[in-house]
Amino acid sequence: MTQISRILGERSGSEKGPLLLILTQVHGNEPAGYYAVQELFQRIDQEYQNKADFDYRGRIVALRGNLAAIASGQRFIDEDFNRIWTDERVKQVQNSPLDQLKSQEEKELKGLLETIQALMDQHPDEQVVLLDLHTTTAKGGMFLIPSTDDNSRALGLNIHAPLLHGFLDGLEGTILHYFRQKNFPHHQLTSICFEAGQHDSLSSVGHAVSAIIQCFTAMGGFYAADIEMKHELRLSEENQGLPKEGRLAYCHRIHQGDNFKMRSDKIYRNFDPIYKGELLAEDKNGPIYSPLDGLILMPLYQKQGNDGFFIIEDMDLSAPKLGRKIPKTILNA
């Protein structure tokens, strides 16, 4: 079997500048990020060929996440790679020999973290952004999940997709939880997640390309004069009518043996409106109804996964509630 490389590729401008780390395929069945990076690098190479004065600042490095899951075409092997990045778990993995790690995903964590740390150490004085690319099983709109720092929100607003807050309160052990400034005090680190659309949709690749370009432009890498307006327009137009910013209001947890299934007579798309009391799914305990009005997000239409669906509420930023934690009563334990 061909060995899959952790580093997917990289491109650098002639001027010193920010470092963009593009993380693809944290889940092995989400290939859109991989194809988006290939398209991005091809476009950069073409720009150099077609425009004698084309250049940019900084460096773009694309990484693969879960190598074993990619090889097998599965979301994960032993456990969800995007749920094990707690501070305690990371420290334990860092201090353990590779052959003593409990799961394939712990081995992946060790390899990915060492690679990212080495790359960041090459840019001690530059801004670093980790852009984590994903797709969902459901069709429908794209969206962004910021980390808790203000820089992440500001960056997200420049990508022109719904910016959804509260996921770091509603979930545990995601990559965004770990890649925060407090864990990398010697670097200027910002992280953000972009969900590009449905797993197998060609449009998800285009969405991801545009998001990367908008992100690196906002970082001061690409010069705005070199960037076609079509990327901003694509993102803005396709997200018309969706919340500019929203908040996680409810997360339906799945436990082993639940036999969770979304209802089969209605296929939900991301951001479809749902209403309190609406039948959404079922498990071993019976029907599952929506506990509130809102917009459904990431309904689960695959066998592997820890979360059945999420419910989002639109945000009125004139109200002082941006930093409010999600009440535990609305998280399905």
Can you give keywords for this protein?
333 residues; single chain; OB fold (Dihydrolipoamide Acetyltransferase, E2P); alpha/beta; six-stranded mixed β-sheet; 9 helices; Aminopeptidase; 2 domains
Description:
The longest helix has 19 residues, at 32-50. Helix 1 (32-50) packs across helix 8 and helix 8 packs across helix 9 (230-238). Strands 1-3-2-4-7-5 form a six-stranded mixed sheet, with helices on both faces. By secondary structure, it is of the alpha/beta class. Helix content is 28%, strand content 26%. A hairpin with a 2-residue loop joins strand 11 (279-283) and strand 12 (286-289). The radius of gyration is 20 Å and the shape is globular.
Provide a short characterization of the protein structure.
The protein has 333 residues and is of the alpha/beta class.
Task: Break the fold down into its secondary structure elements and pairings.
Layout: E1 7-12, E2 15-24, H1 32-50, E3 57-64, H2 67-72, H3 87-94, H4 104-121, E4 127-136, E5 143-146, H5 150-157, E6 163-165, H6 167-170, H7 175-178, E7 188-198, H8 202-218, H9 230-238, E8 245-253, E9 261-262, E10 273-274, E11 279-283, E12 286-289, E13 294-297, E14 307-314, E15 331-332
Parallel strand pairs: 2-3, 2-4, 4-7, 6-8, 8-15
Antiparallel strand pairs: 1-3, 5-7, 8-14, 9-11, 10-13, 11-12, 13-14
